[in-house]
Amino acid sequence: MAEHSTRIRHVLLYEFESGRPAAEAHRNLSQVFSTEALSERSVRARFHRFKAGNKKLEDEDRSSRPTAISY
């Protein structure tokens, strides 16, 4: 999963650097990755990070373990 996410982020960075708007980048992703594509909202959030100068493509380290759910 992490490798797939990183690949999609590379594509998003390419789209961003090419000057495409987030909505067009989302359409392009959806055409190629169909059900595995990010939502348009997620694409916009990633573009916002790129505009702010954060062009890291790897997942950031998390400070704690994920919460376990018990029933």
TrEMBL record:
<dbReference type="GO" id="GO:0000793">
    <property type="term" value="C:condensed chromosome"/>
</dbReference>
<dbReference type="GO" id="GO:0044547">
    <property type="term" value="F:DNA topoisomerase binding"/>
</dbReference>
<dbReference type="GO" id="GO:0042800">
    <property type="term" value="F:histone H3K4 methyltransferase activity"/>
</dbReference>
<dbReference type="GO" id="GO:0015074">
    <property type="term" value="P:DNA integration"/>
</dbReference>
<dbReference type="GO" id="GO:0005634">
    <property type="term" value="C:nucleus"/>
</dbReference>
<dbReference type="GO" id="GO:0000014">
    <property type="term" value="F:single-stranded DNA endodeoxyribonuclease activity"/>
</dbReference>
<dbReference type="GO" id="GO:0035861">
    <property type="term" value="C:site of double-strand break"/>
</dbReference>
<dbReference type="InterPro" id="IPR041426">
    <property type="entry name" value="Mos1_HTH"/>
</dbReference>
<dbReference type="GO" id="GO:0044774">
    <property type="term" value="P:mitotic DNA integrity checkpoint signaling"/>
</dbReference>
<feature type="domain" description="Mos1 transposase HTH">
    <location>
        <begin position="7"/>
        <end position="54"/>
    </location>
</feature>
<dbReference type="GO" id="GO:0046975">
    <property type="term" value="F:histone H3K36 methyltransferase activity"/>
</dbReference>
<dbReference type="InterPro" id="IPR052709">
    <property type="entry name" value="Transposase-MT_Hybrid"/>
</dbReference>
<dbReference type="GO" id="GO:0006303">
    <property type="term" value="P:double-strand break repair via nonhomologous end joining"/>
</dbReference>
<dbReference type="GO" id="GO:0000729">
    <property type="term" value="P:DNA double-strand break processing"/>
</dbReference>
<dbReference type="GO" id="GO:0031297">
    <property type="term" value="P:replication fork processing"/>
</dbReference>
<protein>
    <recommendedName>
        <fullName>Mos1 transposase HTH domain-containing protein</fullName>
    </recommendedName>
</protein>
<dbReference type="GO" id="GO:0003697">
    <property type="term" value="F:single-stranded DNA binding"/>
</dbReference>
<dbReference type="Pfam" id="PF17906">
    <property type="entry name" value="HTH_48"/>
</dbReference>
<dbReference type="GO" id="GO:0003690">
    <property type="term" value="F:double-stranded DNA binding"/>
</dbReference>
